[in-house]
Design brief:
Helix 2 packs antiparallel against helix 3. The protein has one domain. The protein contains 4 helices and no strands. By secondary structure, it is mostly helical.
């Protein structure tokens, strides 16, 4: 390789690393938004976007620690399940035991 192509490769790697870090920060912001909203349609769309972002980070994980690719893959799958739970027409997620069920009132 010529020095010019080495420099270009280094610049490309730095640009990719910067883009991945920016995507990571944007994903954290989306996760915060997900936790702050209760609207099912918004939660569905946010979860889909979060899952997609983690999928991208999984594919481009070289900018992070060596074992981060596996973690991003697990997070993408988890957020896809969350999106599926909030999809239009999906049954409402169970929120745990109600007071009535604990007291055996029904």
């Amino acid at each position: 390789m010529t020095p010019r192509s080495d420099a270009q490769g280094g610049a490309d790697a730095k640009a990719l690393a910067d883009a991945c870090r920016a995507l990571w920060l944007a994903t954290l912001s989306l996760m915060t938004a997900f936790m702050q909203t209760r609207a099912p349609a918004h939660r569905y769309l946010l979860a889909r976007r979060i899952a997609g972002n983690f999928g991208t980070l999984h594919r481009e994980h070289a900018a992070f620690a060596p074992d981060s690719g596996e973690a991003f893959s697990r997070l993408a799958a988890r957020w896809q399940r969350t999106a599926d739970e909030h999809a239009p027409g999906a049954p409402a997620p169970r929120r745990g035991l109600s007071l009535a069920s604990l007291l055996k009132l029904h």
